[in-house]
Amino acid sequence: MDLLEKTQRRILFVIRKVLGIRPRNSDEELRRLSWLRNLPSAKPGKVKWHERQLFYADAEALYSQLNEVFVQKQYDFASVHKSPNLIDCGAHVGLVSLRWRQLFPDASIIAIEADPAIGDLLRKNLESANVKVIQKAAWTDKQGVFFRSSGSDNGNVDLSARTGTKIPSFDLADIINETVEFLKMDVEGCEYILLRNLADKGKLNKVLRLVVEFHHWDSDENPLPGALSLLAENGFDCRILSSVLFKKQNTPPFSENGWAHSHVVVAAKRKTIKEINTIS
User: How confident is the model at residue 208, as a pLDDT?
Assistant: First the structure.
């Protein structure tokens, strides 16, 4: 999009706003909410999105997720089934679950959120969406985990079990007993652990599609190579959707901070799936 086109779209947006004309699509609706990016971090609030009231924990995180889910449509797919089984693991405030409900009114959707405070916002956002909410940490057992809350979308399980608050957990494999058409996973550093557990218990072969955010923190071993190998071994084709280095966006890759503290978003689907191009 060139500068002239951007300017024209901005002028039309301002005119529509002054005249009180409702946004025509999610792209226009998101531009209406651009002020969210300027609010303090980790400060809860609420906002209208397409006539629905959304509760959020962090305004900038909400803006980013609205863009990913409703504008970029990162979690959209077409299904031949009227009521697919879908799992939103690391649901945060529930945007992916809401989008899936739009696409599939009869789908069976499970939304999982470990952060107790954010889980309450998730329930509010999904209370009329007929989505099953699990306010526990998705894990490999039911023994509980130590969780570090950030007030935003990056709270995480402390794998060293030295900090944080102990919260309930459950074995993610226990809820995958039928074919899952889409498993979204955003669990801030536990992705490989959960995928390995599903594979070991024979449940990964029940999943048809995944979008996983792989997080690599400073002291952690990079989980991406092992996870990609695991997915390939289990019959998945993988595609990297995006890669972000949190510390410094312009850090050279072969430098002290070139590898750690990043996340890579990977989409994976079974090689046997032939996608149908009916997404609008």
Answer: 97
Residue 121 amino acid letter = L
Residues 114-144 have pLDDT tens digits of 999 999 999 999 999 999 999 999 999 999 9
Contact call for residues 158 and 148 (beta carbons, < 8 A): yes
**How far is residue 140's CA from residue 227's CA, in Å, rounded to a whole number?**
16
DSSP 161-203: SSSSEEE-EEEGGGG--S-BSEEEE--TT-HHHHHHHHHHTT-
**Dist. CA 31–CA 167, nearest whole Å:** 37
Contacts of 119 (CB under 8 A, 6+ apart): 113, 133, 135
Q: SS3 for 212?
A: strand
Please state whether beta strands 108-112 and 209-216 pair in parallel, antiparallel, or not at all (unpaired). unpaired
User: Alpha carbon of 144 to those of 57, 139, 203: distances in Å?
Assistant: 24, 8, 21
Residue 46, both tokens: 């609420």
User: pTM score, two decimals?
Assistant: 0.86
Q: Which residue has the tokens 């599939």?
A: 104
> How far apart are alpha carbons 144 and 69 in whole angstroms?
30
Tokens of 155: 């709270």
Please report the DSSP string for 17-64 in residue order. Answer: HHHTPPPSSHHHHHHHTGGGGGSPTT--EEEEETTEEEEES-HHHHHH
Which positions of the chain have pLDDT values less than 50?
A: 247, 280
Tokens of 47: 């906002």
What tens digit of pLDDT does each residue of 158-198 get? Answer: 877 677 889 999 999 999 999 999 999 999 889 999 999 99
